[in-house]
C-alpha cells in the first residue's frame, strides 16, 4: 500500500520501520522537516515530504501525532476525500495518567467529525511504540493484537490487512464509537507500563496466540 505517516516521533518512527520492512511505500511528514528527513534516511525508499500535498496519491494516512495536534496535521496534508485515516492517538492529560475525553465521545470520533471527507479508523492506539518498533512476534506462537474500530467496512478491511501485513493479530472492535473503550484501554496500559512501573513489557498481556 501507499502510506503516509504524519509524525516522526516514537510511534511515527516505529511505523516507518515496520511499513518499510513489510514492503509498503512510505512517505513521512512532520512539523519539523529535519526530523522527517532524518527518519526517512534510515530506510531506503522511504521519502520525507513537505506537509502540503503529502496525502496526494496515498491509500492510507497514519496520524502519529499527539491528539491535540491531529486535526491540524490532517488538514495540512492535502485532500483526504475518501482516504483511509488511521487514528492512533489517545486524548491524554499532561501527566499521561488520565484522559481528556470519554464516555460520550472519543479522540477518534472528534477527528472523524473534523475531517468528514475521510474514513477514520481507530487502530494501533493500545500498542507501546517500543512494541510496534520491535514487531508483533513475541515467540511461541504469540502475536501482539491490534484492535480495529471503524464505521466504514472497506476502510476497516484495509486497516486490518495493513496490520496483518506487519505481523499483528487483529481484533474487530466494532464501530468507531468503540474508540471510547479502546482509548481508556490504552490509558490502562500506560498506567501499568509507566505509572505502576511495570515497563513496556506489560504489553504482552494483550496478545493473541496463533
TrEMBL record:
Name of the protein in its database record: NADPH-dependent F420 reductase
Gene3D superfamilies per record: NAD(P)-binding Rossmann-like Domain
Alphabetical list of SUPFAM superfamilies matching this protein: NAD(P)-binding Rossmann-fold domains
Database matches in InterPro entries: NAD(P)-bd_dom_sf, P5C_Rdtase_cat_N, STEAP_metalloreductase
Species this protein is from: Hydrogenophaga electricum
Domain Pyrroline-5-carboxylate reductase catalytic N-terminal, residue spans: 5-91
Record bears the keyword rRNA-binding: no
UniProt cross-references to PANTHER family, sorted A to Z: DUDULIN-RELATED, REDUCTASE
Alphabetically ordered keywords of this record: Oxidoreductase
Domain of life of the native organism: Bacteria
